[in-house]
Amino acid sequence: MTNTSKLSASIVYATDKGIKEENEDFLGSVIPEDAQLTHKGISVAIADGMSGCEAGKEASHCCIDSFLNDYYSTPDSWSIKKAGQKILSATNSWLYSQGQIQYKSTKGMVSTLSILILKSTTAHIFHIGDSRIYRLRKGRFEQLTRDHRIFLSKDKNYLSRAMGIEPHLEVDYKALPIEKGDVFLMTTDGIHDFIDDRDLKNCLQAEQDLQQQAQTILNKALDNSDDNLTCQLIKIEQLPPAKEDEVLRRHVNIPFPPPLKVGMFLDGYRIEEELHASNRTQIYKAFDTETQSMVILKTPSILFNDDTHYIEHFLHEEWAGKRIQHKNVLKVLSPNKEKNYLYYVTEYIEGKTLRQWIDTTPKPYIREVREIIEQVVKGLRAFHRMEMLHQDLKPENIMIDNNNVVKIIDFGSVKIAGIAEITPLDYNKEENILGTLNYTAPEYHLGKSGTIQSDLYSVGVITYEMINHSLPFGEMPERPNKINLAKLRYISSFHHNTMVPVWIDGALKKATSLNPQLRYEHLSELTHDLSAPNAQFLTAEENIPLIEGNPLLFWKSLSTLLFVSNLMLIYLLN
Question: What is the tens place of the pLDDT at every residue in 331-354?
Answer without folding.
Answer: 998 777 777 888 999 999 999 999
